[in-house]
Design goal:
heterodimer; A: 282 residues; alpha/beta; Elongation Factor Tu (Ef-tu), domain 3; Rossmann fold; 2 domains; 7-stranded mixed sheet; 9 helices; 17 strands; B: 470 residues; Fumarate Reductase Iron-sulfur Protein, Chain B, domain 2; FAD/NAD(P)-binding domain; 5-stranded parallel sheet; globular
Chain lengths: 282, 470
């Protein structure tokens, strides 16, 4: 059992932070790696990239958006409750080298995954510009943390309710135009965001790393469910990734495959909501 | 001793009662119900009690088959399980999944003129009797040696090693990557062929003996072999299984609805997706399902598809019926349940709809040519003979490769050109000091009992190493 020692609600309760006791994982994990969590006996295995680790305290932190039944079930877990299973660290760690100027682009809950990567880049001595975005101000997460982890932070909202109005790609274009010496870009967020960021950085010839989160079961390279096409080759995100060369990923295939269980997930969520409603009435 | 006809009436091979095909093809309950005691005793009477029993030679772990059958004949079922346990820690599993026709029963003298003694069914009967009644004393443990052994993987070979070494007085810890123990017995073999309760009961038995089980431990990622040695383990056994799916490199290979048998079966078996939405893991419930391959995994997949509501479940296999590698009983059960077989057929291309979901495939008709390296006649395409099959789910069950997660992250472990661990065929010793390996990660995908046989040999070698230093 893996106990939750700290819990925060963000973005109007749509995004949840859990700090979880998992000393062995905390001791080993590096930025960019993920864990698989399962809430209870009947639960699904959900892969989430770690947002933080604290080896001294023996904890890891995950930040997830509530999107379906499994994450809705996660949301019911309070401080002191436990996940039945946490497996990790899985996947390869982010390759972070001292290269000079880098730009980190995070969208939605991708910002949470971007946080340790941003911090590590700053620690190693890179000049870090960070761009984070959300649909609207209320859904923005980790603004202060990202400001601290980088040298400068640009906040964007799609609806213009806060920071710079528009998509992160617009801000990125300005940054790339003004800094022709940017050596590396990291982009983590929704698939369309990573697709368009990569398209843009390709024009500017800036190497780009993206972190993918396809459907996964075991996380050890056993099932092939998480396969993605990168540079025309089949790769398993769980063991070959989750990070890949953003310029080579087939985003359209990834986007399509993410919808594999769309109908089932909807049905499952509806049943869960009905049960939760019935339980609330009692 | 030969049979003496005329002296007594010949007893026919006792068959196990089982669920009717049309009923069982729609549920996940186990297919056969097992032998009733009376039938087991009758079946045991068919055994000739040969002085030099060929059946035992056919058993990879050398169970004293005439010995336990003699006890069944006398109704001493509890003594019979103790007899089997001397050589085999997982009889309830082996009685169900061993290819007996190629092993013990294939060698049975009675089988020369008649049907062989139903050794597998008797083994299963005895193991099930014990699980229900729990009368047999636990096998005796040797005095503690103070030595610690780590077993990586809780599949059939890992469980065998753990069971053997705990009895020899060593401290044994099993590390399992999944959240539940059992390896392929749990994620791979379906409930209707091997109820999971049986596997968990066998594992519980080991835990009662003192084996320490740690799930959610991905050795190679969460802890390395050298770290295990540093933690005080004196020897390590690697029984991690093959664990790498073989996918196909044809157009459309990544459409939604094309998946490895590993994924399909893991979702259904380990994650219990067949009970979705009670269990949260979804699975594609195809109406028109094609399974590619002809082994046990292919049969398991095609039969699972029927149980998940398929109207049509087809096996598409590139060789002919004679080359099917699956256990005879599995092919028989699949056919009875309505699985259709397309022999000498190979996929050329998958077609999808606008949502990226598979809707059909192009199939190349094959014929058998010259024998290949495996001795089987190699299928070759029949020029111009290509046809279409409609399908909304394709399960790829054409074999497995070596999962590199642990092997590639371990220094000093010699691998062969396919990535399997090089281990001594007699002792299971690898090129890394203090590390043994066995089962599918050494041999490539094989059977449960061969993995157990490798585990047995490795356990003996590990014991020698721990006690004598070699």
């Amino acid at each position: 059992m893996f106990k939750i020692v700290n819990r925060k609600e963000m973005a109007q309760g749509t995004v949840i932070l859990n700090e979880i006791e998992a000393p062995l994982i905390a001791n080993k994990a590096k930025p960019g790696q993920f864990v698989i969590l399962k809430a209870d006996e009947t639960g699904e295995r959900i892969p989430l990239t770690m947002a933080n680790t604290n080896p001294e305290k023996g904890t890891i932190t995950i930040i997830y958006m509530v999107v379906g039944k499994s994450t809705a079930r996660f949301k019911t877990l309070k401080v002191g409750d436990s996940y039945m299973d946490v497996i990790g660290p899985l996947g390869k760690a982010t390759d972070i080298e001292k290269v000079g100027k880098v730009v980190c682009v995070g969208g939605g809950t991708g910002v949470a995954v971007m946080h340790p990567i941003t911090r590590a880049n700053k620690l190693i001595g890179n000049d870090v510009t960070c761009i984070i975005g959300a649909k609207t101000k209320d859904l923005l997460i980790l603004e202060d943390e990202m400001r601290a982890a980088s040298h400068r932070l640009i906040v964007c909202t799609d609806d213009g309710s806060y920071g710079k109005p528009g998509f992160v790609t617009e801000a990125l274009k300005e940054v790339l135009e003004a800094n022709k010496d940017i050596k590396m870009c990291y982009a983590i967020g929704p698939v369309p965001m990573m697709k368009f960021v990569s398209k843009m950085t390709k024009e500017y010839n800036v190497p780009t790393i993206v972190s993918l989160n396809p459907i996964m079961v075991d996380g050890t390279g056993m099932c092939g469910g998480c396969r993605v096409t990168v540079g025309g080759e089949t790769k398993f995100a769980c063991v070959d990734g989750p990070e890949f060369d953003g310029h080579k990923v087939d985003y359209d295939e990834l986007f399509s495959r993410l919808a594999s269980y769309f109908e089932d997930e909807k049905k499952c969520m509806e049943e869960y909501c009905k049960l939760a409603e019935a339980a609330a009435k009692l | 001793m030969a049979e003496k006809p005329g002296k007594k009436e010949k007893i026919p091979r006792q068959s196990m009662p089982e669920q009717k095909p049309d009923v069982r093809a729609r549920n996940f309950e186990e297919v056969p119900f097992g032998l009733p005691s009376e039938a087991a005793i009758l079946e045991a009477q068919r055994c000739l009690q040969c002085k030099s029993p060929a059946c035992v030679e056919g058993c990879p772990v050398g169970v004293d088959i005439p010995g336990f059958i003699a006890l069944v004949r006398e109704g001493k079922f509890t003594d019979a399980i103790s007899k089997i346990w001397e050589m085999n820690a997982l009889p309830a599993v082996c009685g169900r999944v061993c290819p007996q026709e190629l092993q013990c029963e294939g060698k049975c003298i009675v089988g020369k003129k008649d049907q062989p003694v139903a050794i597998g069914n008797l083994e299963r009967f005895v193991a099930d009797y014990e699980r229900k009644n729990r009368l047999a004393p636990m096998p005796k443990k040797a005095a503690r040696t103070g030595k610690k052994v780590a077993v990586v993987g809780s599949g059939p070979s890992g469980l065998t090693v753990a069971g053997d070494l705990i009895l020899k007085g060593h401290e044994v810890s099993i590390f399992e990557a999944f959240h539940k123990p059992g390896g392929v017995l749990v994620y791979g073999i379906p409930e209707f062929r091997l109820p999971k309760e049986i596997v968990f009961s066998e594992v519980e038995g080991l835990e009662r003996q003192g084996v320490h089980l740690e799930c959610n431990q991905v050795v190679g990622r969460s802890v390395s072999l050298d770290e295990l040695f540093a933690q005080g383990f004196d020897a390590i056994y690697l029984g991690v299984g093959a664990g790498l799916p073989t996918l196909l490199d044809v157009p459309g290979k990544n459409l939604i609805g094309i998946m490895s048998a590993n994924e399909y079966l893991t979702r259904s078996n380990l994650m219990k997706a067949y009970r979705f939405p009670e269990y949260d893991t979804p699975i594609i419930r195809g109406k028109n399902v094609v399974t590619l391959g002809g082994g046990n995994v292919a049969m398991d997949s095609a039969r699972t598809a029927l149980r998940l509501g398929a109207d049509v479940s087809r096996i598409v296999y590139r060789r002919s019926r004679a080359e099917l590698p699956a256990r005879a009983a599995e092919v028989h059960h699949a056919e009875e349940e309505g699985v259709e077989f397309h022999f000498l057929a190979a996929p050329l291309e998958f077609k999808g709809n606008e949502k990226g979901r598979v809707i059909g495939m192009k199939v190349q008709q094959m014929e058998l040519g010259e024998p290949d390296a495996s001795g089987r006649r190699r299928p070759v395409p029949v020029e111009g003979n290509v046809y279409d099959l409609e399908c909304d789910l394709v399960i790829i069950a054409v074999g497995a490769g070596a999962n590199p997660l642990l092997t590639k992250s371990t220094e000093g472990l010699q691998l062969n050109k396919w990535g399997y661990i090089v281990a001594d065929p007699v002792t299971g010793k690898t090129s890394k000091k203090g590390v043994w390996a066995g089962g599918d990660i050494v041999t490539g995908a094989a059977t449960v009992i061969l993995a157990m046989g490798a585990g047995r040999q490795a356990a003996d070698s590990i014991h020698d190493y721990l006690m004598r230093g070699w």
